[in-house]
Structure formats: C-alpha cells, structure tokens
Amino acid sequence: xxxxxxxxxxxxxxxxxxxxxxxxxxxxxxxxxxxxxxxxxxxxxxxxxxxxxxxxxxxxxxxxxxxxxxxxxxxxxxxxxxxxxxxxxxxxxxxxxxxxxxxxxxxxxxxxxxxxxxxxxxxxxxxxxxxxxxxxxxxxxxxxxxxxxxxxxxxxxxxxxxxxxxxxxxxxxxxxxxxxxxxxxxxxxxxxxxxxxxxxxxxxxxxxxxxxxxxxxxxxxxxxxxxxxxxxxxxxxxxxxxxxxxxxxxxxxxxxxxxxxxxxxxxxxxxxxxxxxxxxxxxxxxxxxxxxxxxxxxxxxxxxxxxxxxxxxxxxxxxxxxxxxxxxxxxxxxxxxxxxxxxxxxxxxxxxxxxxxxxxxxxxxxxxxxxxxxxxxxxxxxxxxxxx
Length: 388
Known about the structure:
Layout: E1 7-11, E2 18-23, E3 28-37, E4 43-49, E5 54-57, H1 62-65, E6 71-76, E7 81-88, E8 91-99, E9 104-110, E10 121-123, E11 129-132, E12 138-145, E13 152-159, E14 165-172, E15 174-183, E16 186-193, E17 198-208, E18 227-234, E19 239-244, E20 255-260, E21 265-269, H2 283-287, E22 314-321, E23 328-334, E24 338-342, H3 357-387
Antiparallel strand pairs: 1-2, 3-4, 4-5, 6-7, 7-8, 9-12, 10-11, 11-17, 12-13, 13-14, 15-16, 16-17, 17-18, 19-20, 20-21, 22-23, 23-24
C-alpha cells in the first residue's frame, strides 16, 4: 500500500509474484486488519479512502464483514481533529468528531488488538478487590501548547467508538517528545519537564468503583464511571521508543521496554511503575508486596537486554508472543535490526540448560522399581494374612 501513489498491490510472499493491483481515485486514509477470514483462512483487510469508501482485500468480501461492527478513528494533525466512523455497507459514516485544543499533536497510541487480560481485578492486602476498567476501544492522544520552555502537554484518553473523553491530564511547563503506551487498564507516558530539566514517566491506572455485572464491555453501553490512580517517576534518559511485553495468556507480569536514544534497551518491571507504591508501607502493602515509592527510577546494568551492544537510530519496537507463557519476543528496528527474547518473570516454565536429565531418569527408574517391589510385598502379605 502506498499513500503517495494511492494504489494497492497483492504479492505472493513465497515468490514475490504480483497477483493483484488496484488504483484508487482518492487518498488512502487507514488500513485495518479484521477478525474475519476468507475461504483460505486469510484475514480480511479493510482499506478506507478519504472519500469514506471502504474497500476489502482480498477484494469483494464486503458480505463477510457486514455483520461485524467495525469502527475507524482518524487523526488529522493539521486540523487538530479526531473523527470516528462506522462501517455501513461499502462506506464509512461519521459518528463523532472532536477538535483538540492545542498547537500540535505529539503522539497517538491505542490498545493492541491482541491485548489479552488475564485477571479482571487486583486483590489488595486486606483481601478486597480493585476491579479493573477494561476498555478495548481506548486511544491516547498527547497535545502540546505554547513554546518548549513555557508550554504544556495535555494527555487525553478517548473511546474510539463513542468519542467519549475518559481521562485528561494537563502538565504545565512540559514538552515533547511524548511516548505513549495503553495496555490493559493503565496508561504510561514519557516526556520532558522543562521546569526541572529532567525526563519523567507518568503512569495512571483505571479502576471501577464497584464490581461490574458482566465481564463483557460495550462502548455504547459502558459501565459506571471509572476512577484513576496516578504517579510520576524521574526517568534516567531520553527515549526513542517504548513498548510492552506480550505473552500468550498474559499470566506473566508485564514489563515495559525503554529504547534509549543512547542505543540501549531497558526492561522495567511493571511493579516499579505502579501508581500504588506507598511512601510508608503498611502491613497490607507488605502483604501485597508493593515496592516502597522512590522518585528516581533506578535501573541496574542487568536490566538491559542489549548487553554491551549499542543500536543506532532506533525507530520502533515490536513485541510478540511465543508458545511459552514466560517468554516474549522483541524486535527492534532502525539503522540496526535487533531480535531477542525477554523473560520478565524468568523462565518459570523452562528447564535450565544444566538440568541433570540422567539423575532424574535414575530417580524415576528407582521409583518404578520400588513401586513394583512394594506391590509384590503387599500382595504376599495379604496372601499370608488370609492363610492364618
């Protein structure tokens, strides 16, 4: 796909042969991967042009996606405008629009489509439960106003289906660049504080005041209003990109990946970026294993997965799942390409390389032999008892 040529090309990934080509009279606005599949079990792509027409790839598959409620969210940085659309036949109809107050949009991010949630709540030290506000249709926007020294940064959360503003935080005397992450029920962003001349990381988590009646969520019929908990930390260096680890079932604790401009990749456990970290821990906090709050986000040399390597001109990071719940894949791209695996909670579902297979084999053979001998002795004892 090319937004400059306004054309679509279909290539065979095995031999590179051109199989399909289509040109558009309008510019391409957005491409969305759906959950619908064709006869060959290939995911259907929706292609939205700026005249609000929706095309599919493979072509002529509108009947497959007709019954699926599909929404688009468009961002117009030159107009400071957000617009929401819904699929109706082969066109997209506008459902909401919002003008952002500010001079420029610094960053936009939304939840990943494969963002799995293992637990709907968080058990506290007093055995009560904080119920997470799980909204899969959340998008975060960072807007800057004024100059770099005397400006401000507004971070806002919107529901992409209804256009409702869910969260708004204003940071005076802050400036970009801003890196955003929206995962599960929490928002994380990194920015520059011009007043104190330092980088800061802000984390906000969203919870429900009471237990929901159902685990299913609808943006058109949402739960009761949520509340948020926020906390800020002093970051050690500027960032080029930010990502989060992903696993198959999301049972493993999350870790945030910081790609520093110096070329190193740091793995920060989510427990260090918890807004509920107490200044003076109570017995309930200790039972919950909350780490005491310290303003400085200190990282040990063992936190870097790049070891002694330095990556040049990092432009982004992509994480993926594996068949092992403990392991997440990480791909870093830029001038250099770097691929590795990350284990935020160690390899709890893998055997060590120095595992003694011979010893465990001998132990199992000994148990089998002991079982056979004890079974024979028990049968002889039972037989002798009957003859008495």
